[in-house]
Write a structure and sequence with these properties.
Bound molecules: flavin mononucleotide
CATH class of the largest domain: Alpha Beta
Number of strands: 21
Distance between the termini: 20 Å
Shape: elongated
CATH architecture of the largest domain: 3-Layer(aba) Sandwich
Number of helices: 13
Structural class: alpha/beta
Radius of gyration: 25 Å
Helix content: 25-40%
Strand order of the largest sheet: 12-11-8-13-16-17-19-20
Oligomer: single chain
CATH topology of the largest domain: Rossmann fold
Largest sheet: 8 strands, mixed
Length: 404
């Protein structure tokens, strides 16, 4: 099932780092995605950002004092620990990391961490020298051994005007890791190869043949597979999208380059999803200089590119991967999908009707028909990210049946 942040109880523990202000943005984004957020602040954190800021953003009171309990109230650190779906410590100072590594319980945040059964995500942020100090590194290792997840700090220029690893990552990365912490890792152990985006076939130095693929569907598949625990490599044609966090991205331009990149990696994969819209044709002749407008008449002979999907279909049994294709169709799309499933020896095909404005190329939503040897299933019209998750649900069932 697709994981969303909506309705999730997320406890954010803010500690005394200069990066505390960034977490105000995270809380605001979590609330926008309808998570239920409660904030615990250490005494030092309150010197960087006021509790009022987090109270206004979360819409709840902020917890700062272990002993400030109203008489009839449930004990806050136990109550918060019990109701949490996830406890995130961001930013996590060197001091709090040490307290957590040694199981100290000297304030509300550390007591809540010890009392919870929910997953704990620790997001260190500090000066690079501090972060690389053997004592801090040893404590981070201890947290990993306990089973806490760590959001590694990013490298770059910091508030102290030094460069190095220690910066708190931006929301996009944090969102991904938070969602991963909340998602069952049902694709763990899978090595998934995904192709995405269009290809470009050059005519002259200024012009190329391409198609309307935005890459959104392939990138959503890569992001959600990583979230579900897979090791993901994505081979992508030119798109305007950023590579999803923790996905290995290989950028190519032409169908020929994509063919080479896929064939070089297919033997390591357990699942291959060909979501790229690879050009079927390329100009048979490429002009070294820009073709002039004044040229009276221009005929453009085309030649076919390699059929990557068909080649994978031949290799599939021997190499042992599951092969999933996409079909973008404008007419009689189920019959066309069925022909492609059989003709290219696929395990599953996701068929897009590209004539509707809500589906297919460039749209943020999609409605896909899945077809395998057991028959059809129609997925609902939904976001490409949720469509990707529903495709993975189907793939997980197939992997269990195939015992991969
Ligand atoms: C201006 C300033 C910035 C600081 N930034 C950080 C930081 O980014 N990371 C860190 O580990 N400590 C930082 N410290 C030190 C912590 O605030 C200090 O170790 C404190 O005891 C942490 O308490 P806590 O972990 O209970 O919140 C900073 C201190 C000051 C004065």
């Amino acid at each position: 099932m697709p994981t969303t942040l909506a309705g999730k109880r997320i406890i954010i523990g803010v500690t005394g780092s200069i990066a505390a202000f960034k977490v105000a943005g995270w809380v605001s984004n979590l609330i926008k995605e309808e998570a239920r957020v409660a904030v615990i602040m250490t005494e030092s954190a309150c010197r960087f950002v006021t509790p009022l800021t987090f109270a206004a953003l979360s819409g709840e009171r902020v917890y700062t004092d272990l002993f400030a309990r109203q008489d009839a109230e449930a004990i806050p650190h136990i109550q918060l620990a019990r109701e949490a779906d996830l406890l995130v410590i961001a930013p996590a100072t060197a001091h709090t990391i040490a307290r957590l590594a040694y199981g100290l319980a000297d304030d509300l945040l550390t007591c809540a961490v010890l009392a919870t059964r929910a997953p704990v995500l620790v997001c260190p942020a500090m000066n690079a020298q501090m972060y690389n100090h053997p004592a801090v590194q040893e404590n981070v290792e201890k947290l990993k051994k306990i089973g806490y997840q760590i959001l590694d700090p990013e490298s770059g220029r910091m508030a102290c005007k030094e460069n190095g690893a220690g910066r708190l990552p931006e929301w996009e990365m944090a969102r991904e890791v938070i969602l991963r912490s909340l998602t069952s890792p049902d694709l763990a152990g899978q090595k998934i190869l995904i192709t995405a985006g269009p290809t470009r076939e050059s005519l002259d130095p200024a012009r190329f043949l391409s198609n309307r693929s935005s890459g959104k569907m392939g990138y959503s598949l890569a992001r959600t597979a990583r979230r579900r625990g897979a090791e993901v490599t994505m081979i992508t044609g030119p798109t305007a999208l950023a590579c999803p966090p923790d996905v290995k991205c290989v950028r190519v331009e032409t169908a020929g380059e994509m063919h080479e990149a896929v064939l070089a990696r297919c033997h390591q994969a357990t699942v291959i999803v060909k979501a790229a819209a690879v050009s079927d044709f390329r100009p048979a002749v490429q002009f070294a200089g820009k073709v002039k407008k004044e040229q009276a008449e221009l005929h453009l002979p085309l030649e076919q590119t390699q059929d990557i999907l068909k080649e994978l279909g031949h290799l599939k049994e021997k190499a042992g991967f599951l092969l999933i294709g996409f079909a973008a169709e404008s007419d009689d799309h189920v019959a066309a999908g069925e022909k492609k499933l059989k003709g290219k020896n696929l395990d599953l095909i996701a068929i897009n009707d590209i004539t509707s404005g809500h589906t297919g190329f460039e749209a943020d939503t999609n409605q896909v028909t899945l077809l395998d040897n057991n028959g059809l299933s129609q997925l609902p019209l939904t976001t490409k990210e949720q469509t990707a998750d529903l495709i993975w649900d189907h793939v997980v069932t197939m992997l269990v049946q195939k015992d991969i």
